[in-house]
Amino acid sequence: MNVKDTECVRFLQWALPRLRLRWHGFRKVRKQVCKRLARRLRELNLPELPAYAAHLDAHQEEWAVLDGLCHITISRFYRDRAVFDYLDKKILPLLTENSLRRGGNTLRCWSAGCASGEEAYTLLLLWEVRHASRAPAAEMRVVATDVDERVLERARKGCYSGGSLRELPPDLLAGGFERLARLYCVKQASRNKVLFQRQDLRAAMPAGPFDLILCRNAAFTYFDEALQQEVLQGFHERLPAGGILVLGRHEALPPGSRGWLAHHPGVYEKQGHGALQ
Ligand SMILES: C[S@@+](CC[C@H](N)C(=O)[O-])C[C@H]1O[C@@H](n2cnc3c(N)ncnc32)[C@H](O)[C@@H]1O
After folding, report:
1. Domain edge (last residue) among 69, 96, 120
2. pLDDT tens digits for 89-102?
């Protein structure tokens, strides 16, 4: 059984705000969610989405199941090349310099909504292959969080098919992976530097502070505006002045956000004493 697109759109426009999510973010990816909804109807032996809406009203615990059906977990290494090129050329050298000047030796990074780890490992490998030898006194640690335990399991294993690595520059591919049959596995020493944790951004965040936070194609696409503001506030509290927040290519800070300086599309610096310039 399939659900009709119009019926699915009507249902999502009703249900998503109740999960503090927004229809606008799901418009393009709705087919995936609609397919999952059709499967859920079959599991519950329900004829159509209005009956599922009634089921949600009667069974509050079903909202968590619906929330899970709305996780869009697509990712790949070096996604949005221009952003990682900018981090490589401009941001990582500055953050390293600032950290060493402050007497610290660890670059603390957070990948929020990390999916299967592609973003977190890309950042770490960028640092290890291109920067670490120039700053032997410094190291990078990455905390990577996601609400979905299934993707985190894959992230901890750190093994990927060639397709998700096709945008990764050759030096990072050569320096960061071991082959295991047809898979490419992140070397154990690098895997040890990324800590994967299950966490729902709506309810909790790692303590920080962080020098760099990546939150791409997650909160600022799928969350409603008030929730985006709350999440942004959490990021603000976890970055020092001069700390960097990276959003996805098609994302923007929620309207009215203050205290951020745009460096490059999607790359924002927290303003205040000690800023980068
Ligand atoms: C499209 S992926 C983005 C992955 C990566 N950041 C990237 O840009 O390639 C979005 C991820 O955000 C996660 N996510 C969605 N809602 C979340 C929440 N409330 N808390 C934490 N992670 C969440 C999803 O499970 C999914 O893995």
Report:
1. 69
2. 999 999 888 877 87
The DSSP line for 128-143 is HHHTGGG-TT-EEEEE
pLDDT at position 1 is: 66
Which protein residues are within 6 Å of ligand 1, measured from CB? Answer: 71-75, 79, 113-115, 118-119, 146-148, 151, 200-202, 216-218, 248
Q: Which of 116, 146, 230 is the pocket-test mutation for ligand 1 (most atoms within 8 Å of CB)? A: 146
pLDDT band for position 104 (cuts 50, 70, 90): confident
- Condensed to tens digits (0 to 9), the pLDDT of residues 56-74 reads 999 999 999 999 999 999 9
- The model carries a pTM of 0.95
The total of structural domains in the chain comes to 2
What is the 194 CA–ligand 1 centroid distance (Å)? 17
Supply the range of the domain harboring residue 116.
81-270
Task: Identify the residue whose tokens are 């697509």.
Answer: 74
Strands in 260-264's sheet, in edge-to-edge order, are 194-198, 139-146, 106-112, 212-214, 244-246, 267-270, 260-264
The verdict on 111 and 135 lying in the same domain is yes
- The residue contributing the CA closest to ligand 1 atom 14 is 113
Give the CATH number of the domain where residue 262 resides: 3.40.50.150
Rounded to the nearest whole angstrom, what is the distance from the C-alpha of residue 134 to the centroid of ligand 1?
A: 32
Backbone angles phi, psi at 132, to 5 degrees: -60, -40
Give the tens place of pLDDT for each residue, 191-239. Answer: 999 999 999 999 999 998 999 999 999 999 999 999 999 999 999 999 9
Angle 204-268-207 from CA coordinates, rounded to 5°: 25
223 CA distance to ligand 1 centroid (A)?
A: 11
Residue 275 lies in a domain: no
